[in-house]
Amino acid sequence: MVIFNKDKALGFLKQKYIKNYLFIFIKMSEIQKYTFDTDISSLLNLIINNFYSNKDIFLRELLSNASDSIDRYNYNSIINKIDHKIQNKITIIPDKDNKQLLIIDTGDAMNKDDLIKNIGTIANSGTKAFMEKAKDTNLIGKFGVGFYSAFLVSDKVTIISNKNNEIWKWESDATNNYIIEKLDNFTINDDIDFKQGTIIKLSLKEDLINTYTDTTKLKNIIKEHSQYINHPIEILIKKEITKEIEDEDQNVDTETEKDIKTDTDTKTKTDDNNLDDLFKVNTDDDVIIEDVDDKPEKIKEKKMKKITEYINEYQVVNENKPIWLRNSSEITTEEYNKFYKSLCNDIDDPYCYKHIKGEGQVEYKGVLFLPKKTKSNIFERGVKQNNIKIYVRKIFVSDNSSAICPEWLHFISGMIDTDDLPLTVSREMLQENKIIQIIKKTITKKSIDMLKNSMQNIELYTKIYNTYQKNIKLGVYEESTDRERVADLLLYYSLNNPNKYISFDDYITNLSETQKEIYYISGDDIELLKTSPFLNRFKKNKLDVLYMTDTVDEYMCQRLSQYKDYKLICITKGDVELPNTTQDHKDLLKNKQDEYKILCDFIKKNYSNEFIDAKISDKIDGLPCIVTSPEYGFTANMEKIIKAQTLAQNDSSTNYMLNKRILELNPEHLIIQKIKNINDTDEFKSYRDLLDLIINSSLLYSGYPIIKPVEFSKKVINVVMAGLDLYDIDNKDNDKIDTNIKNDNVETIDVTQID
Length: 755
Description:
By secondary structure, this protein is of the alpha+beta class. The chain is 35% helix and 19% strand.
């Protein structure tokens, strides 16, 4: 046995550890456990005013709760083998006179304990608990706060719940308190037999009475958010009728037609002295005078008046059924078109549609449509796109297409419904996660499939392509995993097919075995492209060239670069080598380069601001020279696009790439042959002026801006005047060009013969 000596222990602690241990003892004595104090009114205010961005959401939340309640009641009836004869429905009664709105369901009601647990306890979801109990159910509620959205529009909320003929009332004004009391009975109106279910009565805020008792407004909210709920949603409409009733105050005595006729007849008989019927003589010679009423018989004529009465009429608002839950083989085109018009508020039928379904890791169903018209703001950055509506368990939660649809597909309309999407507490926004990405990929894939299927009808697809080609090209630019599948959708006119669209696959089909390139030329006008000098050698070699006239084509081709095994080549860029080019031809070209080295060096020296290189080329036919861009430089069309952009002026990297051009010279052309030995001596001064004209002309027909346009114009005018022998008239022109340049080694050049 160990004997504890208190004094020794304290002495030991005092000597060595007393300070530390004493500190610990003191701290431990200060630690206590507390319960959070809750300011319920502040908490409710936080839920009401911060969870929801739109007051209309309250109706969606209450209808969702009502739908879940009916589903729970039906489930329990099946489990407990209860045969109930109550019609499943949700009823909305706007009551402007009493400044209130009623939402009534025939679902699973609540007793006192249920009201305390589900309503009196914030964030306790009866639906969530039920779903955990019944795994196969498909209910909506989850967080247990949707009910409190009712306070967005009401100062006071009253719940009347009838469960097994036991009626309980719950009431609160969103403060720290609520009341619960038992009722002997409760009547709504003569139309509704309140035997089972729940009534939510909203005492509307003064400034919202007109808004949320307006039946049109309520219908629109239901159509947007809740039209596909499983159960009928009916709304009370006060229908005005006019009818006629007897106006007793306006009835008068009048003579009938018969009375008037009888009186006339009587007078006539009297006038004719036919008095026998009036005066009868008896056998006693007594005269008997009958009583005659001189006034005709009078009757009352009925006067009618019109009165206005109001009768109760209950209209079902959500008659549209969720078409996406049906088998696609059972749905007609007419049904799809009708559904599209209702969903998207369009008057036209769509081009085509695609029924989608996903099972496995993520389950979803939906329908995608391709409208005949595109929105004007489809390419605006930062603008919310709302073409695809998102539903969770048939309840609309969002129309922010950007979350589940890539930007280039914002022209696709439709909807998608899933049980698996993660939502915020307000159920107004999606939470980014893996499920979202899966659905996004699926929508992309199915949209591409829909477009590819439509290509089977080339007439139809031509209309689609003319409407959405910019989007498709943007898709090629943006997509990484499906880029080539999107490229399958591209169509272009070409050198060999100027009046008919062809695809990349069509182009490849007609290639020789040696050609591994897809040639194209870009510009802003197809008619100008058809006359481009770059096409000449392709015409001679019977090679096809695609015409690309959209701004986005330039960006797209930079990103695509290759389709299948074929490289995309812009024919206005340098070093474009045609198929079957022999080594002998390459050697010959190299020799020519050496022969014209003086001219090339002269151009590189005197035109260094315009050209990074000058070289001999075999791609020119009929022209002295042509301007191209390096392999990774900007084409003429791309330069126009870049310079038109506001930010391009401040982009140093972009500015560096501008004006990086190559002047390619045709050694077979007479002019190039005549000036190949040009230098800086006075002897060649006039040749340099001619070279200015030639170079500027080549810039012009190659699609680039000319150098010093005013000087160029003057020189052109001088050439024209010289050709017309007008210099004798005015020999004071300082810019005159000697058109008969003579040199011991060079023949006279007639500039009027320049090609």
